[in-house]
Amino acid sequence: MNMQKASTSHIAFASFIGTAIEFYDFYIYAMAAALVIGQVFFPASDPATQSLNAFLTFGIAFIARPVGAIVFGHFGDKVGRKTTLAASLLLMGISTLLIGLLPGYEVLGIWAPIILCVLRFGQGLGLGGEWGGAALLATEHAPEGKRAWFGMFPQLGPSVGFLLATLSYLALSLWLSDAQFKAWGWRLPFIASALLVGVGLYVRFKLAETPAFTIALAENKTHEVPIKPLLKTHLRPVLLGALAMVVCYNLFYTATVFCLSYGTTKLGIERADFLGMLCIASLFMTIATPISAKLSDHFGRRPVLLVSGAFAILAGFTLSPLLASGSVVQVTMFLSLALFLMGATFAPMGAYLPEQFPVAVRYTGAGLAYQLGGILGASFAPYISQLLVTAGGLTWVGAYVSIAATVSFLAVLALGESRNTKI
Length: 423
Prior knowledge:
The chain is mainly alpha-helical. The protein is built from 19 helices and no strands.
């Protein structure tokens, strides 16, 4: 009995630590894109153009993520979850480290943004393979009736990864001058990620394969090319699952990347102050995640997602008045509300998406739905928000949040309940 407890706690930690590291890597780029990437890797022209270019490089990784879900999903559904997860973490870590070491436009000229885009694509490929495997690692080992609770551990990774990323940039903002930060300071979190990846790989290599996949392999129930049967017979849950994810992504990247950029440039809030506000807000996301997971095991995934989705629709209406106030308290209130609702809509997805697919295509299916949701909800969300605020002000950005939440609400309605699905 004690061995089983140790095993499940190790599995929970392993599914959490990988996503925490990968999302840390992803978020440090998101923050760098809001603060410094445009100035370092693009020619000094119009600052607005630099910001837009930086946000476009941010979006490239989201295009790569579904490709990563297919590539890593292929091996995860054919060879196994364990090895595939280690490979995805390694690719993400190498790409992140190389971004931290890459010279800027002044040294490499046009090659600087080109190489940056290639490495950003590598980050996206790695992250594309990470989430699906981590979710399956947790849910395929979960005890009866606790699938959403175990599926929560990879969902905690993003909030902890985000908190680590925010704290690292906050520390740099406090300890370094602006000139030092732009010259070399922003690179330190990228280089430090190599140490975190080493820890993650050590934990991952000590894992056993999941019982569900072990049985499928023994009974020869795997597919030669998993993407074929997935698209042929399970396209509907892939597309609806992607739409269900839109609200999570949109809330998060609007609150973090867009608001960070808007708050520091238009509202004149100091970078260190805004990062501190984001640290407070991220705690609300961390709190919401286990609460939402517990409720979705008790009441079902669908009711929890619908209620939190309805609140997210309403949250869009609060963006303009709270953000435009320029008040630290009111801006923090919006950030906390948005990230709390992100945690509430995100937590059940660790179980909800895997439950839509049979074991032989589950890694590919759950991962692809999740990453396609990233393209729809997040890839160009900061870019679109930037265009909207320029064209019509913050009210338009708030409307964008509400529309994204409505899309996910309708997708969950169409998908239905999955709590009693056998994994």
